[in-house]
Design goal:
The chain is α/β, with parallel strands linked by helices. The protein has one domain: Spore Coat Polysaccharide Biosynthesis Protein SpsA, Chain A. Strands 1, 2, 3, 4, 5, 6, 9, 10, 11 and 12 form a ten-stranded mixed beta sheet that branches. A two-stranded antiparallel sheet has the order 7-8. α2 links the parallel β3 and β4. The longest helix has 24 residues. The radius of gyration is 20 Å and the shape is globular. The N and C termini lie close together (about 10 Å). About 40% of the residues are buried.
Length: about 400
Amino acid sequence: MIDIFVVVPTYWTWGSERPDGPVEAVFDHPTPVDGESTLPRLLDSLVHLEPGPPFRVLVLVATVHPSLDNRAQARVNALIASFRERYPVAQFGAKELAVVRDWLPALGFDPALLALNSYAGVRNCQLLVPHVLGARVVVALDDDEVVVPDYLHIATEHTGRVHDGELIAGVAGFYENADDGLLLAEKEATGNLFFDKARVMNESTRAFLAASDRLLLTPVAFGGNMVFHHSLFTQVGFDPGITRGEDLDYVLNARFAGFRFWLDRALRITHLPPHHYDTVVYVKRAEDVRRFFYEREKLRLAARRGLPAPTLAELSPYPGRFLSGALAGQARDALRAVATPSLVRVHGTPDAIVAQAQDRARRLAPAYFGFAQTWPRLMSSMRDRGLRGQLAARLGWKINSDS
C-alpha cells in the first residue's frame, strides 16, 4: 500500500493565439497552454530522490477558464508521460473532478464544495483526492520548484510523530531562491505594509533562522512546501472564501481546530518561478487586500466564538501586522501606486477594491465556520470504496479498494 502522495498543482492560461482570452480564475503565474512548463523540471528532481518509502505523484490541473480544460489536460498528459516508468504519476483535472462531484449529491453534499478554479479549491482537491485513494500523508509541492534527493525523507521524518507531547500533524518548510538564499528581495522601508511586505516576511524568516531548534511552532507556511498528516487533513480544509494566501490561512484554520503547524528548518525546496508569466502587480495586490481583510474578520469571529484563535502577537510580525486595524488607508495607497487607467477600467478603482474587500469579508467570513463543520463529514463520506475504485481506474492506478 502506497500511502504517501506528492501533490503538485499546475496552472494554465491562454496561449499565444489568444493572450487576452476570458479569465474566470486568477493565479499568480499560469503557464500558457502553448508555453514552456516548469513541471518536467520538478518531476525530474523527484526521479532523483533517495531510496525510501514508496510514493505516488498526483498533478492537479487548473485553468483560468473552463474552455482551456481539455487543452491543459492534454499538455499535462504529454509532460508526465515519460515519468510514468519512474514512479506512479497521474493527473487530476476537470474530467476527474466531474467523477468525484457526481458522488456528492448522493452523499448529501453540494458538488460546488470541490473546484479547480481557485487556490483554495485546488488545495482542497490536493487533500481530498489522496484521501479517497488511501493516503496517510500528503506532501504539497508546486510545479515551479525542485527538490533535493533527501527531501521526501525529511518531509516525512517527523510527520505523524509526537514531539514535546504533541502530535505533529502539519509541517511547513522554507523556500530557497535560485542562489540558495531564504530572504525575499527588499526595497527601502516605506512604512506601508503592502510596499514593505517582503521586509515583514523576511523579519519572520530571520527569527526562525536565529532559533536553535530544528522544529519550531509557526504561524506561516508556504503552499509549495507543506506536509499534512491524515489526522489533520481529514479534519481541516482550505477555506473556499480565501482568494489568495490559502497556505497561511490554512495554518489559522488548523489552529481553530486545535492543531498547530511546525516549521522544520531542514525542510527546503528551491523556488524557481517563471516571472515572464506573472500576473500584473495591481491584480495581485488587490488579491492581497481582499485576503487580509477577510483574514482579519475571520480571526475576529473565531475569537468571538471561543475557538482557540491565536493573538495578533502570536502571529506577528507576519501575518499579524497585516491583520491590525489600520489597513484600509495603506491598502488604498498601495493600490494607487500601481494603478493605471486601463487596469482601473477592468479591475476597479483602489477605493472600490478596498470597499468591496471590507464588504466581502463581512458577508463571507461567517460561512467558513459552517464549512469547517462540513469538511470532516465530507472526508469521512468520501472514503467510499466504490468511488476509490472508480477514481483509481480513471487515473490508471491499481489501488486496493479494501484498505
